[in-house]
Structure formats: structure tokens, C-alpha cells
């Protein structure tokens, strides 16, 4: 990896030499020390980018759901609580939520299933699952629809492996208290 970066850096320096020299073909060798400094500067730039605090840029990146998710594995209880949270606590607000808000509740990225364009709906969709670590037949499947502005929001969700009424009875009061 270091050799590849060094080679790319040398090529870039040579290109810049050509451009800044107004046609002169003066090239110079880059010392390994200069390459190390360039690598360090690149790392600093990457770290600065990663810690950027511009809320607008952060929201834009989050809303694109650029990454394709994680394993989606959570506890059996978390899957069930997630369903109750979405259907009973958040209710209609669920359909205004983006991927990162849902993943935030679960504490992990969902398992990316697929992305498709639905001609009937005239929109792109992405599908993610949050799955019980104890029993993979227990999961919450969430669909995200792309809006005109390019952001993705929940468009639907369904479950497998449990009865909705039972988990609502089991977790609703606890989640109401936690959300106060």
C-alpha cells in the first residue's frame, strides 16, 4: 500500500511539475521523506474530513445511505422492541425517519438486502433487516424510499417470527417510560 501511494505521489508531483513549469519537462525525484510527509498530510486530511462538524454535510451523507449496512444482528428482545418502538411509540413519525435514525435505535447497521427501482412507484428503494442473534427467523424488515431530494425515508416495514400483539403487550409500557 505504501509503495502504491509513493508511486501515485511521484506521478502527481511529476504532473504538477509539468503543469507549473509551463511546458518545461523538468522532473525531479521525490525522496522517501517527502513521501512520508505527504502520507502524514493525507492521514491528517482524512481525519479532518471524518470529524467534520458541518451538520448539513453530515445530513446529506446520512440521507444518501451510502454504505450498504452491517450484519443487522441484535438481540431477540431488541428486534421486538424495535417493532413496538416503530409501530406504537413513533407511529406515523416512523415514515419520516431515515436509515440512520432506525439504525440508531438498534445500535447497529441493518443487513442490506437489496436496492431496486420500482417503476410503478417511480422511485428507488433500499431494503434492510435487523435480525435476532438467537433465532434468525425473528427479524424486522424495513423499506426505505428515495425522495425527490435524494434522501431515503421509511416507506414500510414488516416482521417475522413473532406476534405483534404479544410484543406490544410485553414491551409497550417499558418503551413509553424510556421515551419520556
Number of strands: 5
Largest sheet descriptor: 5 strands, mixed
| Computed Rg | 24 Å
Distance between the termini: 50 Å
Question: Which structural category fits the helices and strands?
Answer: alpha+beta
Estimate percent helicity.
40-55%
Element order: H for helix, E for strand: HHHEHHEEEEH
**Helical segment count:** 6
Provide the residue-averaged pLDDT. Answer: 77
Low-confidence stretches: 1-28, 51-66
Strand content: 15-25%
Basic shape: globular
Description:
The longest helix has 19 residues, at 2-20. It is globular, with a radius of gyration of 24 Å. Strand 3 (123-132) and strand 4 form a beta hairpin. Strands 1, 2, 3, 4 and 5 form a five-stranded mixed beta sheet that branches. Residues 1-28 and 51-66 have low confidence and may be disordered. The chain is α+β, with helices and mostly antiparallel strands. Helix content is 48%, strand content 21%. The relative contact order is 0.13. It has helices at 2-20, 32-50, 55-63, 76-90, 99-106, 164-179; strands at residues 73-74, 111-118, 123-132, 139-146, 152-160. Helix 1 crosses helix 2 and helix 4 (76-90) crosses helix 6 (164-179).
Amino acid at each position: 500500500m505504501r509503495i502504491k501511494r509513493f508511486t501515485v505521489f511521484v506521478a502527481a508531483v511529476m504532473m504538477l511539475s509539468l503543469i507549473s513549469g509551463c511546458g518545461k519537462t523538468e522532473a525531479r525525484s521525490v525522496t522517501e521523506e517527502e513521501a512520508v510527509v505527504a502520507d502524514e498530510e493525507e492521514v491528517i486530511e482524512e481525519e479532518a474530513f471524518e470529524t467534520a462538524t458541518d451538520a448539513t454535510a453530515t445530513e446529506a451523507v446520512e440521507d444518501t445511505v451510502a454504505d450498504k449496512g452491517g450484519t443487522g444482528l441484535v438481540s431477540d428482545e431488541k428486534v421486538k422492541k424495535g417493532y413496538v418502538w416503530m409501530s406504537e411509540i413513533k407511529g406515523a413519525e416512523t415514515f419520516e425517519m431515515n436509515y440512520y435514525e432506525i439504525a440508531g435505535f438498534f445500535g447497529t447497521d441493518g443487513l442490506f438486502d437489496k436496492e431496486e427501482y420500482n417503476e410503478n412507484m417511480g422511485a428507488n428503494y433500499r431494503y434492510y433487516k435487523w435480525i435476532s442473534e438467537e433465532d434468525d427467523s425473528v427479524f424486522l424488515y424495513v423499506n426505505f424510499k428515495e425522495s425527490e431530494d435524494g434522501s431515503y425515508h421509511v416507506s414500510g416495514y414488516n416482521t417475522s417470527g413473532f406476534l405483534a400483539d404479544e410484543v406490544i403487550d410485553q414491551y409497550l409500557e417499558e418503551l413509553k417510560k424510556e421515551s419520556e
